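Question (not urgent): is this output format expected?
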Amino acid sequence: MTGTFYRLTAKDFAVIEAMLMRRRAFADPIAPMLERKLAESRVIATGAVEPDLATLNSRVIFRAGGGSSQTRTLVQAEASAPVGSGLPVATWHGLCLLGMRAGQSALAERADGPAEEVLLEEVAYQPEAARRAAQDRAAERPRHVLKLVHSAPTADWPLGGRGKIRQTEGDDPGPSAA
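Got this back:
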């Protein structure tokens, strides 16, 4: 993960920071990669997230080590996505992809093996950009508001008739009418 510039939302940064604190305590081999990710990242506002930026819950299309393309959703934990569709950021590839823009590549340096190049081909779905687009569409739609244009006096009834509030004078049809 060297030589690459990453952009993280405040939430993504906090998730990686919390992971680092937990992993350092257990001398996890991914801790140095977490430290590099935080050091090489810039925190950006949620409103400034581009549609081609990989953040948590983004659906990404990537290629690792020259293999075939894979489509996954970057998730915080494996249990938060259907089996096989999620890529936790606690994995080498997931952590490497987080904060990258489409077309960007980086080396995922593993403690247990050789470094592997990870290329982010496309961000198929970006939640912050999708939310912003939905808000823009909602703001463009005209709001339908009911407006009272006429108020009739209480003495006037439709069609000149005089209505009754309650049935009186033995007009009750009884339970069979229900």
